[in-house]
Amino acid sequence: RRSVQDAENQQIEFNLKDHFRKLKKELLRGIDKEALKARIEKIFGNGCDMTIALDELIN
Prior knowledge:
mainly alpha
């Protein structure tokens, strides 16, 4: 029983990740990534952890 439940949980997790990837793609499709990056750097500063994490998310 445990392995069936684990497999179901893994499938749900995979589906969620796939949905988030699709959502990210759609959200970023109409956005100027360089302008967004510049705004993020202006708000958080250049090179800070938050800026780096958001930059990785954008790209």
